[in-house]
Amino acid sequence: MADYDRACADLNWDDFRDWLDYLPSGGLNIAFEAVDRHVAHGRGDHEAIRWLGKSGETRSYSYADLKRETDRFARFLSDLGHGPGVRVFSLLGRVPELYFAALGTLKAGGVFCPLFSAFGPEPVRSRMTIGKADVLVARARDYAKKVAPWRAQMPDLKHVLITESPDESGADTIALAAALARTPAQFELVETRAEDMALLHFTSGTTGKPKGAIHVHEAVVAHNATGRIALDLRPGDIYWCTADPGWVTGTSYGIIAPLTNGVTMLVDEAEFDARRWYETLERERVTVWYTAPTAIRLLMKSGAEIAKAHDLSRLRFLASVGEPLNPEAVVWSQKLFGRPFHDNWWQTETGGIMIANYASMDVKPGSMGKPLPAVEAAIVEENGDSVRVLDTANAPGHLALRPGWPSMFRGYLDEEKRYAACFKGGWYLSGDLAMRDEDGYFWFVGRADDVIKSAGHLIGPFEVESALIEHPAVAEAAVIGIPDERAGEIVKGYVTLHQGFQSSPQLNKELLGHVRSRLGAAIAPRLMEIVDDLPRTRSGKIMRRLLKARELGLPEGDISTLEKPA
Fold first, then answer.
1. Cα dihedral sign, 63-225-361-447
2. Which end of the chain is more exposed for a tag (fewer CB within 10 A), N or C?
3. Helix, strand, or coil here: 231?
4. Please, which residues have CB within 8 angstroms of residue 74's CB and are 6 or more apart in sequence?
5. What region does 519 belong to: left with phi over 0, alpha with psi -120 to 50, or beta?
6. CA 350, CA 321: separation in Å to the nearest integer?
7. C-alpha distance across the termini of the chain, in Å
8. Can you tell me whether residue 30 is helix, strand or coil?
9. What is the 3-state secondary structure (H, E, C) of 402-445?
10. Can you tell me whether residue 345 is helix, strand or coil?
11. Strand pairing class (47-52; 264-268)
């Protein structure tokens, strides 16, 4: 995109649809656009995935290789008796089997749902139960610890596919590698339609159970277009998205966007390590890099000397995702790499990037950028059942989008009222507060709800509070996010105790360990405070907002509904 204003005037979603091939029947399938069409156009020899194992091993898969392995997985699902609509859940990290399973499921006309591999048993159980999982793909140890104890309570879960060697499987599981070795790599792709369900991504709310956001095959139109426009993907690029596969980012921009654009996708199994990352950027000659603010802050903390020891001149475009990127990080990257990080904004519900800083325009450090061509965004003020667009520059309000973009979620699974509540007055209300400056750049202000964003993970307070209350000592619980230099926010818990229990450092430590064992380290509180009482409204709702204001020394605001002590 050479000129943003011209692109906004000239391009619309129909233009972006024309960038894809579609099925001969006129249908649309994400996996066909990501894999098969490249082979059909004679690009099968081009490298699709370059995988780096955490122990130093490497594997390379061409688009033809990827077609073969995804066909094989789809055929295996069919041989097991699973047809279109099968729901395949994954607990895998960044390993080749994840990509074969995701794309193979889509070829079979199924629905793919990635879960964060670091989740504890309860988050896995709740999501698989809500999503009515038919098939699970996992490592043996994750299955044994997180799923096996309650599998009998899930009648929908018919098959568990274990990725390790045959001796790692059990009587109630299937060793995937051995099974695939016996499966022919021939499969006739299911002729899905644009509105057929393809992806299920769970996101947490401030109250209630996790929400399963439904995405359809037409989402690929936005994934492809945003990869090209917002991430500046071009033929010949070596692209590295560091997102975990359990995030929506790990699917939208860790699989679909790069593959539909025909580039080489770098996948590193290992977790963050500053030296390894710089070595990888140099050795693999990465040209486009998409990472998270948490990682950027850790790189900043590691110092410039490590980076300066490496030739990073191949980097052409740097982008950030997961949470607002602080201005200091943009200035730092400009000095170190000679290029700024380009922040962008989107959500699980939007399915793809909606607002971004583009290669063709100046970056304002701290801004999320401007809307994608064909996306209508506004700052609005709620007024009963309607909304009013705020035209005044720098006026804070709700960040809203005009519905109708291809990657827009089509619902929350089995929760029609919850879905309908996201829309008002002809707009989708994102739940984020923002403002727009005089140049049309959008700026993040804060979240309109209490969802905590820690190291790119959206954490619902209710889920953490529920785990805390399960401890016999805990009477009530509330959690908030507090600022953290590395993670953006970390979770802090507050609890009151039942009679007969006394506050102590040992109990505090025990509570932290209890939640960590249930939910996993990514979700559990880092800090805990045992208090005598929690602020609540007269109706009994605990006021997390007030807890946060007191924690941070901020104005308490309107406390007219606060329950008064007896």
1. negative
2. C
3. coil
4. 104, 105, 107, 108, 187, 189, 190
5. alpha
6. 14
7. 63
8. helix
9. CCCCCCCCCEECCCHHHHHCCEECCEEEEEEEEEECCCCCEEEE
10. strand
11. parallel
| DSSP bridge partners of 162 | 138, 175
CA-closest candidate to residue 73, choices 233, 222, 182, 146: 182
Q: What residue ranges in 81-178 does DSSP mark as E strands?
A: 87-90, 111-114, 135-138, 159-162, 174-175
Beta pairing class for 341-345 and 58-62:
unpaired
Query: Cα-flanking dihedrals φ and ψ of residue 237, to 5°?
Result: -70, 145
The residue count for the chain: 566
List, edge to edge, every strand of the sheet that includes 211-216. 174-175, 159-162, 135-138, 87-90, 111-114, 197-203, 211-216, 411-412
DSSP 372: P
SS3 468: helix
| Separation between Cα atoms, residue 117 and residue 91, nearest integer Å | 5
Burial 272-282 (b: 16+ CB within 10 A, else e): eebeebbebbb
Q: Which domains does the chain have, with CATH numbers?
A: 4-433 (3.40.50.12780), 452-552 (3.30.300.30)
Measure the CA–CA gap between 174 and 177, rounded to whole angstroms: 9
